[in-house]
Fold each of these.
Amino acid sequence: MKLENYELHLPSYSVGKEVYNQIGKICKPYGTKVLVIGGKKALSAAFDKISKNAADGGLDIIGKEIYGTDCTYEAVERLAALTSFQEADMVFAVGGGKAIDTCKCLCIECEKPMFTFPTIASNCAACTSVSIMYHEDGTFFKPHFFTHPAAHAFIDTQIIAAAPYRYLWAGIGDTYAKNYEAEISSRGEKLPHYTEVGVGFSKMCLTPMLEYGRQALEDNKKGVATEALEQVVLAIVVTTAIVSIFLTRDFTPDYNSGLAHACFYALTAYPVIEKEHLHGEVVGFGVLYALLVDGQQEEFEKIYTLNQQLQLPTSLEQIEITEEQWEESMDRIPEMSDIRHYPYKVTKEVMENAGEKAIFLHCLPAFHDLKTKIGKEVYEKFGYSELEVTDEVFESERSVVFDEAENRMHTIKAVMLATLGE
């Protein structure tokens, strides 16, 4: 491992319910003229609050623009041609990953100061130094790396708490993926300092999800900014970004991605993925498959249980992908750059063998048909004939739910014997 000179810039951020009141103090040293760029819904949720605090801080908003629909180089070129962009001292990027990534690609290369205002917590775009670029048709193109992230991120937890909970839900899946992908991609290697820091720190992408994930989602559904929600938001937006920056110091995804993300990007070939599902939602499913391929049965069961608790996907049906489409994807996944640095070659045969190891576990009761009174009531009230599992999976050879239940009975008997004594 050779010695080298390098630079590495970590994110600066503010977090809390009233962090926008720091806009003037933090941003004014960069100038006074501001162009706000974001998604339509994001601007509706945050622009008035941003505008008031910007004015109170002595800043002048000279324009407000919709970024587009996808993070593409064409969208970047359109925004760069705007007079308001050329006249602005800085850009405020408001919204989710695609809006913020578009603004990073727009501003960082030409050294225009930019500040991020995430309105949802579905990914780490607000604090990281990479933009995920797409083709105009919505399919994945490539990652575009930068030497540093945005100048500052304003993470307003009240605005995020008021957003639809499915964004935080998907963000959880995208975040815990970082832990497993970093560990697998770096396995058995002597790592440079920055990569080793990223891999070690990646454990913080999983731990808060196990401890706070369920409560954070409940609080999000109620629109309440709580400690649990803040812990999960920080893990999604900040921790994952810090890990990403350390892991991509050499401007490659070698340690920053893996099979879970390769599954997602391969599946973007089907329009339903981008139109009906969120990035982290599909990545959360991809983690299950990655753990099976890697032979981590115990971790697979842990994440399978977590996904069940949070209602993240545990089957192809839940992400609206057919068996035929998954079979087609197995030809594309091995070609993805996300797994070029895996400690073993991921082939179609390896993935097919992993699928044969999959089992279905459930603590019971499970609502998978209309043969129970509660099952009928759920169907009559909500129109769902199946909830957390389909009847096909529940009754399949892969289902070991009754073996699991029997094991629990023996465990209970052992506990009773140990506590009652002689």
Amino acid sequence: MKLSYLAFQAFAGLAIAKLERTSINQGDGYAEFNTCFAPCKSLDYDHTKLNLGLLSTTYDALCGYPPATGCLLLCSYAISGNDTAKLPKFAADMASTCGYSSYNYTESYYAEQYSNATQYYKPLSQINFSEPLYNPTIPNLTALAISYKASLAGNYNTDTGTWFSVGLCGYFLLLILIGSIYNFCRQVGFTKSLNNCKLSKLCQKFIVYPALLPNGKFVQPYGFKYLSALFPNRIQFLTDLFLFGLHVGYFCAPYRYVRPAQYTNFVAKRAGVSALGKIPLFILFAGRNNFLLYITGWSYSTFLHFHKVLAGWMFVDGLVHGVGYTIVYRGFYVQTLHNQPYFACGIAILTIAGTLLLHSFHMFRSKSYEFFVTTHILMALAFIILLWYHVKNFGWMEWPVAACCVWFFDRLVRVIRMSIFG
């Protein structure tokens, strides 16, 4: 109960934070926006930064000085092939990004800025680059063609992570649905004739019930006194094998990268989004008060098996994500630790996840189970809090929120059961 109250207090503090949602980046205007950002920023403007925002040095001119704002909006529209349907998206992108500047303008303001820019637009050939820019212009679009393709590729690879995470949830939802239907049929007696058929008996004999290895153990550990492990049964192993195949296919699917230097970035991004998608799932399978235990008829050991497998894959994804971005942005993170703690949170998350996995090995938890449970809950609590601060400014906050909801529901059911049964 004390741990539940501690968790409630911790997560209540997170509830007031601004939540950046998951977005499907293809077609949302960000490819055009990102392509035009650097060339428009590089121009010389007669503007003084207010330095009131988190990233004022980067965004103040483009967000608050009309010629710079107009340059970015006109360029985004032009490189999109004059797609008028994307104009509202460009305004929304500006309003969202400029939250890190000294200005807090709305989408309607930036829509007006686009109209204003069309009136005062001056072609690049008429610009005197020896003086500050007082009129919006459009950079050389031909020179931006490769960067635009790279941005489109980046959006595609980011979206694959989101869709894979959704698909993974769908995979386990399908397993739960199959288990629930079979359990319902068993309860009402529909499976008696099915279980007596030859094919069903063969499946039960060689796939569903036996241990993984011939004449092997299922609930008893393998190994020695100080080195032991539990193996899954065959049906669990087959579901794990399919999950392994999904991950191999996911990471080997085409990346559409334009330049070899982007490859590491794209792999790291895919891994990070994939790791987030597993967190609500492995918390779901960890709860002892899970209503799905009654619906599916599965044993709690089966749920714990899925919990451990998903947590292991999450750690692998997180490790690939962390190592990949460390390679891509080496040196940058250390310089920004004082005002952007997401990097430090990421290191702490991986450290805690690795400790949780190591501490969960049978040879450790079998020695002192109560100590294992207490430390597991406390480290999991720290994991979720740090994860929240790691991703809250980047998006995909639905996954941490879903993880918190699953955990709270399990605690709520536990409190209700204790109130009723003591």
Amino acid sequence: MRVILSCEPNGFGPVSKLTAIARLLPDAERIFVGDAGALEFARRNPDCFEQYLTIAELQQAPDLGAACDFAMVVMEPDVTFELLQAGVPVYLFDSLIEFWVLPNGVAPLAAAARRILNASSDDARAIFHAFSIHERKLLAHMIATRSFAQNFPGVPQRIEAMAQEGFGDVRLLGSIIDHPPPVGTSRRAQPDGSWSMLINLGGVENFAIRFHDNDYIIDLTEKWAARFLQDTPDCRAITICCGRYRQADTRAVGHGTLTRRFAARDEFMDLLERADVVLSAAGRTTLHEAIHLGKAPILLPEQHHNQYCNIISLAHTRLGDLSVALSDIVTLGDLPDDDLAGTLRIIEGARRVLREPTLFERFDALLRARIATFRALDPAHVQAIVDDVAAYLGGADFGATVRTLAQQKKPRPSYFQPGAALIDG
């Protein structure tokens, strides 16, 4: 069996999910297709992929699709379209399906999908690319062989809206994670009372942020972590995981150590499971992973517009009480309902917190208070927080879904056959 595995390049969320998919296909020849940070992440997990291609290299290999059984794609609409056009069955996975901004709603996309499914190759491409990237993200679900959405507040409502327009085959999934849940508690008190902290910032890079360009949140986190270690003798180790750290390093700070690293997936999951306190960017991937492992992460100020929306969506949960939103520190005003404009406003807010002493002190005090609150909780209260959030994350079993798809006989579809090789449910 030969499989194409592709994802969007921004952040580590999509490629982390793709790596989880790859782990469930150990007997297949797994061809990774992607760019930028996603490609770097995939290369750090060499047991998951047999071959690596950029998207441009895929475009230069027109016969590759004919030699593959199917493709599994995470949130990459343009690759999805081209593979479908080449006759490759595509199973599309998404963890942000309700986030995509649709200025005119779902109906125009449904109409476009019907036209695409009956159009010539050139006409279909013109119809598809007439829409914005957010609109194409959703349109790809309507033309994919089969599509799946990881659960989160608002996701069932978006799926229902698609169903009302005649595209009701999107399957609601639980957490897209291949890691087994822990056995027993991973919080073990040390005899000397010392404890450790994991800070996850993820891939960080996107359409507005590059390493050392607008990534103020990384410098802010490093500054805070060093100060906290210096002031907190019983915190003996802080590890910051981030895509900027191509080369890992560790230095002594106060009574402890500060480590910066770009962790492979298994290494990160091990760090997450063993950490006494977890601070995380407000992305959904680490949230799902932490909850799966029975961890209640303290959510850090948002890096971009989607993380802002995530914090808002979780504000009513018990985890909301452990979050530190950027608006708790600095005045942002009403963020525009636009990914780029909202992200630029957030970047400016993070820059101010890093550089203005009064704002940094406010951030420091808020985060220390959240950590103190968390460390005072007993295991039952931590579990209550986990259960509260988990109630919004349930769905069909991810592992069983991928294995079922891989085991099915898949006749080669003609140009665009949505619904081919469907699984029950």
Amino acid sequence: MRSTARRGLAESLDDVRRAGLLTALPRLLVHRATLSGVIASSARRWRDHTAIVDHRGALTYRELDELVTAASRHIARGDRVLVTSRSGRETLVAAAAAIRAGADAVMLGPDGSDIAKPHRGRGRLILLTSGTTGEPTAPRRAPLNPLTVSSLLAAIGLREGERVLVLPPVHHGHGLSLTTACLMLGAPAVLGGGLELDEQVALARDAGVISGVPTQLWRLAGHAAASSLSPRRIVSGSGRLSPILAARLHELYGPVFVDFFGTTAVGTVTIATAADLAEAPGTVGRPAAGVRVSIRDGLVHVNGRRTGDRGYLDDAGRLFLTGRSDDLIVSGGENLSPTRVEDYLAAHPGVADVHVRAVPDEEYGHRLVARVVLRPGFDEPTVLAHVSRDLGRHAVPRLERVEKIERTATGKVKLVAPPRKPPRE
């Protein structure tokens, strides 16, 4: 096993060529490499070509650029703009307009609340982490590395004029990054974030590329019309991809899959091609250009910064994640991973959705609790026997049957904190 992995210079330069950035970079240097600059530069090249598509229709690059300019006139330099719209196009326009006016755009999402102290804006775009158990935060981000971006774009293989269905919302780093890349390379971005599954499937019919977090792709693959889709490329990111989902997508669409691992603070870390996933199921791939991945005491470090993930590198330099550093628990003297148990439950044909968490227990120290949405014709004992047979009796969770598991727009489970006890009088 290796302890460090990075991409070679020759391979990194080839990524730049294959990503199509050699022609895009000169335009960006004139208009600045920001969301606003990408829209402005692309509007000059692809003026009346389709830029974005959503359930309301299409916008050309010229129309999108004009909307950004008009909105920017209502924003003062140094302002702070909190972007909370549920509409993908409105989120995109508001963020680009703020930057064009010299203000900060804080991407909160439809249910967000501002977590930062007031300050004078400087034309920045601020992304927040997806807070599910607490308030979201705005982590300090490493500077954007064009080589890292080129590695991801080369793996995806965006093509001018080919529609790309972007399932994560634009206020999320995954959705925003891919939408910006589409705008930069002339590939129409189809904004599917926040829409119902049937609407997303309808938008996917004309898409050559489909991108989403694993939960979104799992739902898409389970739709009755999934087999009628014919994407050239499927891109997963911003979440752990289970080998079960990878196998299902391969069964439906063949070896067209790309998975990437990254964080809001660091950006893209590793990229797994279809060949990587076939040779080493469960891998999240090899480091992107400009990224150094190292393993210290079983913990993943990226460019010297700890990510909070546990993992290892194989002899080919591919990274495997084994969980979060705070994921492993001890229950009755046995080490248990909620993530592993959740994967086994999700693989059962009777489980439509599942979330496993650890809770304190007086007898065992901790116990696993599984909230499960069962399909018709299946019962709790049958599902739990699946875990007991493969993982052992100690891994069997307490099961809570529910009608629906509430999730955020990016597929993360919404955990509601218990109500506070009233103060004593």
